[in-house]
Every structure is written in structure tokens, then in C-alpha cells.
Amino acid sequence: MFLRVLALAFLAIGAPAAPAQAQVPAPETDGSYLKLGFDRLSSYKFVAPEYDPLSNPKAAPPTGEEQIPAAVKAWSGKKAIVTGFMLPTKLEGGKAVEFLLMANQMACCYGTVPNMNDWVIVRMPKGVPIVQDVPIAFRGTFRVNPTFESGYMTGIYQLEAEGPGQVAE
């Protein structure tokens, strides 16, 4: 009896709401590739969980994966085309071997801080020429997997690119 009263009281007060899952538009396809634009990748709110790796270096950092809609997680491991603006992060021999594809160009020195789901970390072992200020599309295997560097979250999307990008139409 006591448990029933407790359960009814809990329902009357209200249980904590589960995080709302955003409605993510289904991606189009280009043959066997998903077309993942930032209209889809950034269509939900993602807040990087607070974490200080210096306060407890042995603790696993929080991933925030519960904020990523199931529809977005389902794209992980699939072939995709992602279009955005290149922001080089690692160069070898004058070519970008790692870079961010950004939703827009506002993340420069005078712009705004983008949300964690406003960029894709692209890795291209052979490197590609740097192309900035125009949207460029890359094909490859898309991953939804929070990444960390020195204990800090650096991204939630990655693309293992297959070849040189194409300037978007």
C-alpha cells in the first residue's frame, strides 16, 4: 500500500522529464551515400557536458550521447557526403590531413563560438589542398562518436574522407 501511495504521489508531482528528442529530417541519398547537410546535423540542441579533466584525471569524461537523437546515431558507420566550410587543423606538406567542415564561416577570429554539432572532424591521410571561403563536399564513412583530446570534448562527428573534395554547387 505504501509503495502505491508513493508511486501515485510521484506521478502527481511529476517525474523528471526525459530529454526531448528532436525531429531530425531524414537525409537524401546520392546513390549509396547519405547527404548530410548541417540542416540535419545541427537540427537539435547539443550542449557539451561540463567536465574538468584536471580535477579528476582518472574519471571518464561525460559524452553527452543521450542528447544525440537516435536518427542521427543511426547514420554512424554509413557512407555519407558532407558539405561545409574547411577550417584546417593539421597540415602535412602544405596539404590538410585533418580539418573541420563547418556549418558556416562565422567561427573565425571575429565570429561566434559554434555548437558542437556545427562541425565535422574530417581526416584525409593523403591530404588535400586547402580550400577556404567556399563550401566544399567530401565523401567518406561518417561516424557519430564523441571525441576527446587531453580530456576535453573536441567533436561528436567524424568523417574518414575517401578522396579530394568537390566545390559545392
What attributes does this structure have?
169 residues, mainly beta, OB fold (Dihydrolipoamide Acetyltransferase, E2P), 5-stranded mixed beta barrel, 8 strands, 12% helix
Q: How would you describe this structure to a colleague?
A:
The chain has 169 residues and is mainly beta. The protein has one domain: OB fold (Dihydrolipoamide Acetyltransferase, E2P), CATH 2.40.50. 12% of the residues lie in helices and 38% in strands. It has three helices and eight strands, in the order αββααββββββ. Strands 3-4-5-7-6 form a five-stranded mixed beta barrel. β3 and β4 form a beta hairpin. The N and C termini lie far apart (67 Å). Mean pLDDT is 82; it is low at 1-20.
What's the quick description here?
The protein has a single domain, classed as OB fold (Dihydrolipoamide Acetyltransferase, E2P) (Beta Barrel). Helix content is 12%, strand content 38%. Strands 3-4-5-7-6 form a 5-stranded mixed beta barrel.
